[in-house]
Amino acid sequence: MGVLDVFKRATAPVSRRLGPVSRRFGIQKPEKADLFDDDFQKKLETLAIVSRRVFAGRQRAERRTKKKGSGIEFADHRDYTAGDDFRSVDWNIYQRFGRLLVRLYEEEEDLSIYFIVDCSTSMGFGEGKKFDQARRLAAALAYVGLANLDRVTIVAATDEIVARMPTTRGKGRIFKVFDFLRRIHCDGQTGLKDSLKTFVAQHKRRGLAVLISDLYDPAGFEEGINVLRYNKFEPYVLHIVDPAEAHPNLKGDVRIYDCETGDEREVTVTAKMLERMERAWNEYRDEVERFCVTHQVPYFAADVDLPFDELVLGVFRRGGFLR
Amino acid sequence: MLFAGLPFATLLTIAAVAGGLTVVFYILKLRRRPVAVPYSRIWERILRDKEATSWWSRLKRLLSLLLQLALLSLLLLALGDPRIAGSLIQGRNVVVLVDASASMKATDVDPTRLEVAKREVKKLVRGLGGTDRMLIAQMDAAVMPLSTMTGEVSDLETAVDQLKATDTRADVKRGLRFALDSLRGLTKPEIVLVSDGAVGDPKELSAGLDFEGVETRYIPVGRSGKNVAISGFSVRRYPLDKARYEVMLEVANTNEEPVDVELTLIGDGQVVDVSRLSLQANERLPRFYKDLAGASRTLEAKIKLADGQNDALPADDHAFALMPERRRARVLVVTPGNTYLEATLLLDEYLDVTSVAPAKYPPSGNFDVTIFDGVAPPLAPNTGGSLYLNPPEEGSPVKLGRAMQEFGFDVWDKKHPIVRWMSMGDIQVAKGHSFKPEKEDKVVGASEAGPILVSGRRSGRKFVALGFDPRDSDFVLRVAWPLFVLNTINDFIEEDTSYVSSFFTGDVWHIPAPSGAEVASLKAPDGKIHSVPIKEGRAVYLGDQAGFYELLVKTEPEPTTSMFAANLSNLDESKIKPAESLELGGKPALLPSGFDPGMRKEIWLYLLIAALIVSSIEWFTYHRRITV
Fold this sequence. Notes:
Chain A is an alpha/beta fold and 323 residues long.
């Protein structure tokens, strides 16, 4: 399936894309105004300036990578092997220990930033506020990355990679980013493990992988993040949270069904149950944060009700996105 | 315990069906509303905790079923109308007679006595026991039951609301008779009279009535109020000068103190006379307005206190009267010549007299009255009523008897319109005949030898026959002669010199109406139109409103309309001082007892209340999610 096919699928009518579950229960998505209007773009420029001021003194593409290479900052030693540059031999070590060791330096290169945008049905739940916020954040951070001459790639993921924007750099390409993000739609079941496995297989160049998702993965969000970690990507979790989901507007006897899996359950919603629901939702969020902190994965919870520029500044302050 | 409502077997059947349905509905699950959630795993966490307490949930659901079954049981029991066995046969049967006579319109209590009476009766209704039954009747000149003998509070309250005061007297005796008849054979009979006690002679009330075993109660209504009344109002034209009339009016003061009143006489809406009168305590003052002239057709009299205040009973402050209608009567005289007769007919200017010789009968034209003087030709259709003076054998409407000489009127009907107020006993007759009247004929006057003055009807037309030639007697020389002739003519054209200018409300009225019609339309003073039957030339109606009435009879070629007036004119009703106590059946009637509001001894009512409470509990627990 080529990129055009992916876009065709992404731009298909909502009712068809929502699949059997949405047809069964008649979920309709309302038409919306342009996400990336002039106001949005003005704010992006401001954010780019703010990012430069915050990280003043850095050179362009001056990011350390785990790749050892020809940089100027010492990283490690290794044994000399035939063919190595003699200039790299650490003669001081040889004098002291009689071993030929070669000095290794951290290679300085332009960073690859991957934005993995969750396009599952749960992201478009309700009024689609989570998905809109996810796309705004992706666009804003991508602009900052492009402005810093980083290599920016955006992929749309459900339980597979449903769309991919080819790697690009330079802030003049931001409209390509907008265009890509406009075209993607929510449809499908969340499956971070499978989709990110595909992602790492498709992207050999390691880099910062910003996962923008509500992390409503029936198989568990941990597996997906671990896939990134185990494959030497630097995961950054932008957790899109909608506080309204902690207070569902339900009462009485209802039959709830999962908007992605269609799993049904008969429930009598009481005031007590709603209290428990709020508690469980907060626990889930804490669980995600705890996992990320434990595994040294930068985590930032993005509330859908907050302005995106405020969130982006929060990401800057939180660290991990730019160093 | 007995079931006065549905039989027990039926209740069991309903209980089985309804209970079964309730359980089935309980077991059946309604299709729940589908609701999408973004992530069902969070819900599963909650539900997992809830399932740990599912036994309690099941118990709560069972509680819900039990509540519903309890509700059903209570409703079924209510349908069965359970009664305590002893109370079922001990209910009282009460007839409430509510005085709706004119005096109940008195405003000495707010707003009127009748409204206060209604309130009192409603209290009784609400205080009925579960097995008590009541009948409410309006009592004025007639008695009108407004409900059946029932224990239904709503029906009885509706009946109370229908009570309406009329302009009539109260016929309490008739009401009591009705009540006793209604209660005959019933257990615990009780009569409650709600009245102001203006019921005439109290001793007369119970005379001839058997109150044995019947409890009598009396609820007095009203306070003493100041009242003056027009207790009599009548008008008549002078018999020999019908262009003029006289008015008789009586004003009464029913108070213990003297009052000054202002009396106004109104003719056709225009004030004719205003006078100021001083009345002593309990004085009745007659007033005559003699020799009045004018074209007035309607007359009204109004009275009010001279100090400008209103008295307590406005209903008797206004009286109505109607002058007899004047129209020119067409009289045909078939005579070879009779000076006395011709002279008599000249007395009334409203007579249009045509004289013809017997040979020229019948002349052209229509006539209201035909006088046959010594002849009796076959009657022509246009004859009208016929007065025969000494009719011959052939053609006489009444067979002739034997010939008589030297006789007179030994007996005569002093109330008959043609000889009323006349002295006939000193008339001397030289010769004549007696009559052999038929069964339906009326002998108005007779000598010892037989009838000599007969009236009756032949072929639907009135006749009067005199058995002698007036010229063969001294009748023509007496005042009675012209009166006899004019009375006879007036009788034929329904224009009575003793015309009753107004009827009394509460009486059965016999209003003159054209013969031949069977039904007439009567327009009452309040504008309502009633259909009234006509019997023997009189429309019969029990009137209960004072004022002017209009009677319409459909006749050919055009309908006939006539008016008349009706007045209360009853001094007993005008005496509005209420009686504090009343004696019925030889013992004083006490205030009612045993009517305690809110103490209906009907178990179904309490069961229904219990069902409502259970229903409320179910509602509350459902919405609080206790039983779900």
